[in-house]
Give the backbone structure.
Amino acid sequence: MTAQVFTRRALLLAAPVAAFASTHPVWAADPGGHVAMPPAEDIQRRLEREITVETRLRKPLEVVRFDPRLRRRAPSIDIYAIRFPSGQAAVPLSEMPKVEEIATALERILLKRGYEVFLLEGHTDSAGSRRANAQLSYLRAYNLATTLVRTFGISRRAVEPVGFGEDEPLAHTPDWKNRRVTIRRITDFVA
């Protein structure tokens, strides 16, 4: 996608202009925590980062999903821009252009590489109970995966939702940085 198209989309979505850092994406946010969506090219570049995985580190999918040591080694990108209404898990129609950026990146990777597995991690802030946040984060990740499959044609085998609630905060306050979806390409770790 060209910068011009991204700029037009950002303006249409009333999102601020964002800056991309090469080692870890740092997106500018307004005081309300509204963050611009990274374009498909940036998502794709982050997820296609090459890694070498020793055979002994390859595990069944269910183990990889919940092993933070393995997940942190996988190519990933944090997406802060998808806004869910408080306490709700359905992907709002207004967020579909952002989901389309994710779908475009995943589709390009799948066309280039063939089979891939992407972990879609849901994360929440600490507002609410720990149990409710765990359930809400999973449902948001599940609904995002379902939208990618049903609306954008991504293979169901390529996306695995998981919810971590408030257990993996980036900031130790109930902050917008903790409300995110992390996408990880975990294919290299799955036995």
About this structure: The longest strand covers residues 118-123. Residues 1-27 have pLDDT under 50 and may be disordered.
